[in-house]
Amino acid sequence: MEEFKKLIKAHPLSSRWAKFTKFIKSLDKNVEGLLICDGDDDLDSIKIKILAVQSYLFRFEFVNSTLVILPSKIIVFSHKQKLALMREYVLDEGQSIVDVPFEAKEPTPLNFEKFLDVLKAEQIQNLGFFEKEKPKGFFDEKFIEQVRGVTRLTDVSREVQEFLSVKETQELELIRASAKLTCSFFRKLIEDVEEVVDSGEKVLHSTISEKVDNFMEKAKKKPNKWKLNGYYYDFVYAPVIQSNQTYTLKLTSGNSNEHLSSDCIVLNLCGKYHDMNSLIVRTLLVNPTPADKRNYQALKYLHSKVVSNLAVGTELSQVFEKSRASFLKRYPELKENLPPSFGFGIGYGLDALLGTRPFLMVVFCLLGFIAGVKTMIRSAREMGAKAERQEDD
To answer: Is the separation of the CB atoms in 100 and 118 below 8 Å?
Structure first.
């Protein structure tokens, strides 16, 4: 519990609050604050920026809550337990909070009327919100429509995404720390997989995963060469191993109840340090054929071109066209195998045509957004759940 208090208190809430609300008010859309409607704890719901803003400001997520972030105060429509948590651990003395608590699992109509009365009393004319976010439960789209009856709502999704994409020095340091620890545990995962392949024993994917997970739990309690506090590190989900021609791109899919097969093995490990995640996905080709090696080299070359052509301000369509031109110059015989799309389309199309599934699907999906989304969601939610459990204790 003491470590958790230190973690929250070390979070620069005041400076981030001031910076974020100043940014919101500076927008040309004349918004006075930001409305965040966070619904049920459902991994399939779409609330990417809702989670990102809460992680940036508070370090964890307030599930089943609505927050109205204003320059001088925050209006919180949430369960009384979460309100107590915010008051004790999150807010500094400089922040003012307006409570609209409820005691049941979901608010009552009377609770909701009280929340609307608070908004009316504040005389807020225009709030920013995320139009494409689709939370589930009480705070869903119907809830948002009712809020529209009190104040105007303006979509600020693109602007907030650009704001959050610029990382502060502290965040960059945490990302580097997360990457160092994740790489060290990923090496352990590869060693264990290679040991099974070399021995020829029948070992379940889940058994290998559990072994690495147990190794991590013990190792993080010991000193490391980077002098990082292992208390703040954890796997976002158990290491995932896929083989035997059974693959899925869902990063949190879990391990199938199958034995490791010495063919094409996909390893997926995601760790987090504080609230920063690092993900590694690697494909191992065991005893590849000459055709496999040739296709691998071609695909690796295309991947390197895509990465080198990624630059701030460059449209993805331009990245694809430049990479495609370089690829065809070296591999003109594969012209008919290139699909007319980017990201997952490239990987899936080339896998189907070249017979390399799932290598390219994995490689090119890593250039997309899905990895960060899934890990961020689980990370923020675990942080919130952990806080609530400790409050219960």
So the answer is: yes
Residue 93 lies in a domain: yes
Contact between 43 and 87 (Cβ < 8 Å): no
Q: Is residue 381 part of a domain?
A: no
Q: What residues contact residue 93 under an 8 Å CB cut-off, 6+ apart?
A: none
Average pLDDT on 188-200 reads 94
Residue with tokens 């990370």: 379
Residue 227 structure tokens: 């002098």
Q: Please state, in angstroms and rounded to a whole number, the distance separating the CA atoms of residues 92 and 152.
A: 29
**pTM score, two decimals?**
0.68
158 and 181 fall within a common domain: no
| 356 within a domain of the structure (yes/no) | yes
Are the CB atoms for 248 and 387 separated by under 8 Å?
A: no
* HEC sequence for the chain: CHHHHHHHHCCCHHHHHHHHHHHHHHCCCCCCEEEEEECCCCCCCECHHHHHHHHHHHCCCCCCEEEEECCCEEEEEEEHHHHHHHHHHHCCCCCEEEEEEECCCCCCHHHHHHHHHHHHHHCCCEEEECCCCECCCCCCHHHHHHHHCCCEEEECHHHHHHHHHCCCHHHHHHHHHHHHHHHHHHHHHHHHHHHHHHHCCCCEHHHHHHHHHHHHHHHCCCCCCCCCCHHHEEECCCCEEECCCCCCCCCCCCCCCCECCCCEEEEEEEEEECCEEEEEEEEEECCCCHHHHHHHHHHHHHHHHHHHHCCCCCCHHHHHHHHHHHHHHHCHHHHHHCCCCCCHHHHHHHHHHHCCCCHHHHHHHCCCCHHHHHHHHHHHHHHHHHHHHHHHC
Give the pairing of strands 96-102 and 33-38. unpaired
Considering only CA atoms, give the Rg of the chain.
24
CATH number at residue 118: 3.40.350.10
Q: What is the pLDDT of residues 104-149, one digit of tens each?
A: 888 999 999 999 999 999 999 999 999 988 888 898 888 999 999 9
Sorted by sequence, the CB contacts under 8 Å of residue 66 that are 6+ apart come out as 35, 36, 37, 38, 76, 77, 78, 115, 139, 143
Tokens of 123: 């005389």
**Among 60-74, 273-287, 375-389, the least confident range:** 375-389
Q: What total of structural domains would you count in the chain?
A: 2
